[in-house]
Amino acid sequence: MPSLHRVAVVGAAGFGGAVAARICHRHPSLELTVLTARSDAGRRHDELYPRYRVPLVMEELDPDRLAERADAAIVAYPHGAAAPAVKTLRERGLKVVDLSADFRLGRERYERWYRRHEAPELLDEAVYGLTEAHRDEIREAGLVAAPGCYPTAALLALWPLREHLQDVVVDAKSGVSGAGREATQTTHFVSVTENVEAYKVDGHRHSAELEQELPYGTRFTFVPHLVPVEQGLLASCYVTADIAAGDALDLYREAYEEEPFVELSDEPPGTDEVRETNRCRVHVRAVGDRVVALAAIDNLWKGAAGQAVQDLNLMLGLPETEGLE
Amino acid sequence: MPSLHRVAVVGAAGFGGAVAARICHRHPSLELTVLTARSDAGRRHDELYPRYRVPLVMEELDPDRLAERADAAIVAYPHGAAAPAVKTLRERGLKVVDLSADFRLGRERYERWYRRHEAPELLDEAVYGLTEAHRDEIREAGLVAAPGCYPTAALLALWPLREHLQDVVVDAKSGVSGAGREATQTTHFVSVTENVEAYKVDGHRHSAELEQELPYGTRFTFVPHLVPVEQGLLASCYVTADIAAGDALDLYREAYEEEPFVELSDEPPGTDEVRETNRCRVHVRAVGDRVVALAAIDNLWKGAAGQAVQDLNLMLGLPETEGLE
Amino acid sequence: MPSLHRVAVVGAAGFGGAVAARICHRHPSLELTVLTARSDAGRRHDELYPRYRVPLVMEELDPDRLAERADAAIVAYPHGAAAPAVKTLRERGLKVVDLSADFRLGRERYERWYRRHEAPELLDEAVYGLTEAHRDEIREAGLVAAPGCYPTAALLALWPLREHLQDVVVDAKSGVSGAGREATQTTHFVSVTENVEAYKVDGHRHSAELEQELPYGTRFTFVPHLVPVEQGLLASCYVTADIAAGDALDLYREAYEEEPFVELSDEPPGTDEVRETNRCRVHVRAVGDRVVALAAIDNLWKGAAGQAVQDLNLMLGLPETEGLE
Amino acid sequence: MPSLHRVAVVGAAGFGGAVAARICHRHPSLELTVLTARSDAGRRHDELYPRYRVPLVMEELDPDRLAERADAAIVAYPHGAAAPAVKTLRERGLKVVDLSADFRLGRERYERWYRRHEAPELLDEAVYGLTEAHRDEIREAGLVAAPGCYPTAALLALWPLREHLQDVVVDAKSGVSGAGREATQTTHFVSVTENVEAYKVDGHRHSAELEQELPYGTRFTFVPHLVPVEQGLLASCYVTADIAAGDALDLYREAYEEEPFVELSDEPPGTDEVRETNRCRVHVRAVGDRVVALAAIDNLWKGAAGQAVQDLNLMLGLPETEGLE
Questions:
Q1: What pLDDT sits at residue B1?
Q2: Whether the Cβ atoms of residue B35 and residue B8 lie closer than 8 Å to each other
Q3: B47-52 contacts: CB < 8 A, separation 24 or more?
Q4: Are the C-beta atoms of residues A165 and A223 closer than 8 Å to each other?
Q5: Smallest Cα–Cα separation from A262: which of A179, A177, A323, A320?
Q6: Does pLDDT of C102 surpass 70?
Q7: pLDDT of residue C37
Q8: Are A196 and A176 in contact (CB under 8 A)?
Q9: Is A265 on the interface with B (CB under 8 A)?
């Protein structure tokens, strides 16, 4: 029996980190050795997340001690806070998958949409972790940036057509866990229930990832919406392409035939079909002279922690699907 | 004090008819004299809908007796069943607002999307009841077809730009009451909760109304989605227009400045802001070279029974907003 | 036409105060002249609560200026903060209904369950505002303490039997608006959805009101639960009484026959039957040798602001139901 | 490697059967060989339940062919329909766990609460499958009746005190999946959302199981409630016992210390803590002279299919927790 890879989850008290902890804890080839948290340090993880049943106590981040006990880490810190944490772990030789935006974008684009970058010297080695798009690079990477939840769904809906896109509208609907664990007016039950609403109409930061990953110059508009759902994200994409509709469908079949986590569905996918799975279900249809491509994911799984483990599997030479079925 | 207009609601057991009954019952210039129902005939309305507090017993439809007791009717029958009922009431001289699709479309278009028309001879006199678009004709009409919920929101989002539309995507999200009172797998709580999904991607019948009301040849795609909300509908419209963005916004201000039920909102409107009101809240913004126009309504109010009463007010010479504030 | 009574809502940004503002604004015999808020001072009320459509700007509380413009006030401050505000308004001659717990209890009981009382000298004049129980005193009162939401429902379920209670279990289920507008882990959508849970099992402070209002020595247990509902509260009461079941039912009929806001229902009432109304629907049934009494209210209406206006109507000599139908 | 036990799920299209299929399909010592359905025969299971990912086609029930391919069966038919199906499978030598009420009760009690029994000759061998209460008999049984969801939670809340119960109120709250997959007015999203309501106040049939399992003569009242939750059930039990509170708590610790699926919790358990698990979380507290015992389960898992597999594990000599972690 091969020895287990020891893994830490840094920032395990938030929603993304908690799912990462849960998946790693049950993963047959990983040993979850360290959980860290900031304000919740000292508490057992299963006290915060009883369903996930991870019996470890969360501790303050101590990079040296962590490096003695882990070979790899999933970092689930907020944007800005992630970069220094990732840097310190990389310096100690750990392979890292980062859930924040800090290593998803080139420096110029990052600083335009977010803030001054805290560890720009790492950007060269960072790989954008949309597994289906960058599998080979991820396999070789020491640092992978797990994509945002919206770009994951939108890009998987669009990827097979990427050479043919002329005009794209992405209307995306996300559950509330995408807004994080912090209690705000936005996440208050009374604000969310019996409500649907768009937000950041003129520029959600996830646009930057679409801009980077789609061919230069693709005209696209992306508008996110909040819906009264806990976990789940649907990206509805409306595409004008320079290819016949029938050919477009062939491209999807070809692209996703062998993908373990992307499924073509004959019917429009519901987010409940993928809840608490790493799957993305895609439905494509030609409607008049437009292609409608719908992709449903669980925003915390394929849209964050699930994809992070999928990437980590590749980085560690493990089967891509291990621990995720 | 002027005498009251006597009004009947035909098909008061369904969601749309029930709201019509509720509004008419409290309307200062209407006297709600008759409610009809099919399988629920004999039951008191407030037994089915306690909150609405309409204490009338629903009866079987008897056109002659109804005509003795009412001057106008709101018909809330399913498509196909409505036409004969409307016909019989028109023959007896009642003014009618019909909530079904039966009189919204020209015959050819109706029969393409729905079925053989049961009363085509009435189509000439029928007016499409989007109040803001056809106010003057409605005032003169004996028969008004209240628009579908999706077209109401989409058209109000697009109307001020209608002469300038080149390409339109309408991504609409509806609450479950839009699917009607019938219990089906689609409306089962377990199917709806924690789920978002598109449906009828390649052709919802409400497309026909958009096609009819938008300028001939406008390229548009309309995809409806179901969200876990009881009442509420958001139409997110993505428009390429032949007009500068700033000018576009002026058109909205101009168009809606005096409208009693359409409000321009500085923020993307949530459906909960209009729940149980006849209002439509519209937010417009130029995003790059596209115009994003969002319209939120209550699908049972402005999207059905509320607009029906708004139309009826005009038909009866009453103030347009009466009974709806 | 009689002149209007001028009324202020102090603390109009919270859920209870917002509903009070909404009701007073539409009340035919009240003129809503002042809204105050603390952190939201300077904002228009309808910006926070668009559906309620109260177009006033909220201001900081300035008792002198307020007293010039209002004859009565509804105070919707948190416990502890309310007492000094009420005191200052009473000193300026306003009639006051207070939504907090500060004037619901005798001093000793208040200080046992809450904190040191800030205005004990007012306790003598304060009347407990369960309208159905204390109507005559309320009519004469200058200061009324609107009951808590749980006690309102539980006491209305139990009141007709109050002389016969031997043993009572109150299992109550409340919607999330009862926890207030503050964003906390408890009110986070992700905590609430797909969840039901009891809280404060060994002593919710509303127990003190039950203890005070039920006959001395009645054995009772009260456990509140949080359910994924926005507005609504159901109190399920399990009673052992020293009276035959049939006689018990007669007591309810007698007690509530003439009550404008309490209805006996043949079926167990759903909270959705009373949403956004001031009604309480009660269902009573003998089950074996126990009496099961169920009462459903809207926690923000009959459980807070609605009952406050019902009380205010009496204090001002207005018809009890005015503005509440 | 030991050979797998071949298992069939009869009635796999309903909610309980579907979860049974899902659990058996992933169970390391079971081979799921047959799924049957009635109106859905011919469809793949993962078409109805994509998340569960069971790729078998459901077939009509053919007992002879089934018996060739399975050693055991979980039957998930409605009450009444189950008995003949169970009989025919027992006659062919299969071990059976039945999810219906048909074998939970003695004949007299069954026929009083349900209907004429279709296979009374099997009642003698049937064991009531509350694992924690009847583990040894289950191990030897050929036919086990999985308890109802309400009795499972209520009995686990009460079991350690069963010798000391004097008076019990069980106020239970269930999610909608407990009402089954059939689309009815009760399960319509619009009926459920924003609503809490009691039902069958004067006698839910699950009372019969409590009556049977609790000591003869225990005075108890059981009232079920429907809450807007998909999966989850909370039983809140209010107990008068003939034992000191401190001793009562000891009884719970003792009873559940070694139970793999029952956990004592320091806090009132939320149903979301056990969603999609076979766990029951119990919280007990002395409140005055009463004991409050709260038990949370997932109604489809520990309340139906999970417990069925727990029982089946015992019947087949497998570790009790296998396939359920």
A1: 52
A2: yes
A3: B48/B13, B48/B18, B49/B18, B49/B21, B49/B22, B50/C273, B50/C274, B50/C281, B51/C272, B51/C273, B51/C274, B51/C275, B51/C276, B51/C277, B52/B18, B52/B19, B52/B21, B52/B22, B52/B25
A4: no
A5: A320
A6: yes
A7: 98
A8: no
A9: no
Question: What's the pLDDT at D94?
Answer: 98
- Token readout for C110 is 């208040």
Say if CB C86 and CB C122 are below 8 A apart.
Answer: yes
Question: What is the rounded CA–CA span in Å between residue B138 and residue B313?
Answer: 10
Active site (annotated) includes residue A237: no
Best interface-test mutation with B: which of C51, C267, C275 has the largest number of B CBs within 10 A? C51
The whole-model pTM stands at 0.97
- Residue among B24, B149, B237, B280 flagged as catalytic: B149
Q: What is the 3-state secondary structure (H, E, C) of chain C?
A: CCCCEEEEEECCCCHHHHHHHHHHHHCCCEEEEEEECCCCCCCEHHHHCHHHCCCCEEECCCHHHHHHHCCEEEECCCCCCHHHHHHHHHHCCCEEEECCCCCCCCHHHHHHHCCCCCCHHHCCCEEECCHHHHHHHHHHCCEEECCCHHHHHHHHHHHHHHHHEEEEEEEEEECHHHHCCCCCCCCEHHHHCCCCEECCCCCCCCHHHHHHHCCCCCEEEEEEEECCCCCCEEEEEEEEECCCHHHHHHHHHHHHCCCCCEEECCCCCCHHHCCCCCCEEEEEEEECCEEEEEEEECCCHHHHHHHHHHHHHHHCCCCCCCCCC
Q: What residue type is assigned to position D44 of the chain?
A: R
Using CA atoms, how far residue A128 sits from A105, A108, A143, A218, in Å, is 8, 16, 9, 19
Q: Which of C231, C268, C289 sits opposite D198 (nearest CB)?
A: C268
Cα distance between residue A230 and residue A227, in whole Å: 9
Residues 154-213 of A with CB under 8 A from C: 176-177, 181, 183-185, 187-194
Sign of CA dihedral D277, D52, D173, D104: negative
**DSSP 8-state code for residue A125:** T
A141, A294, B251, C29 from A159: Cα distances, Å: 22, 12, 37, 63
**Reduced to 3 DSSP states, what percent helix, strand and coil does chain A have, rounded to the nearest 5?**
35, 25, 40
- In a mutational test of the D interface, the residue from B177, B185, B188 whose CB has the highest number of chain D CBs within 10 Å is B188
With 0-12 / 13-18 / 19 or more C-beta atoms within 10 angstroms meaning exposed / middle / buried, residue B212 is middle
Report yes or no: A318 and A268 within 8 Å, Cβ to Cβ. no
Considering chain D, what is the average pLDDT of its residues? Answer: 96
From A60, B176, D270, select the one nearest C188 (Cα to Cα): D270
Q: Give the model's pLDDT for residue A1.
A: 52
Q: What Å distances lie between residue D257 and A259, D122, D261, D282, CA to CA? A: 45, 34, 10, 12
Nearest 5°: the CA angle B119, B125, B126 is 75
Is pLDDT of C2 > 70?
no
pLDDT band for position D163 (50/70/90)? very high
- Contact indicator for A77, A10 with CB cutoff of 8 Å: yes
The beta strand positions in chain A, using DSSP E, are 5-10, 30-36, 58-59, 72-75, 95-98, 126-128, 143-145, 165-174, 197-198, 219-226, 233-241, 262-264, 280-287, 290-297
Residue A196: its chain C contacts at CB < 8 A? none
- Chain B residues lying within 8 Å of D177, measured CB to CB: 190
Angle, helices C306-315/C131-140, rounded to nearest 10 degrees? 40
Here the ipTM equals 0.96
CB contact under 8 A, D274 and A194: no
Residues 11-30 of A with CB under 8 A from C: 15
Cα angle, residue D49 at apex, residues D48 and D54 outer, rounded to 5°: 105
Q: How far apart are CA A311 and CA A75, in angstroms?
A: 13
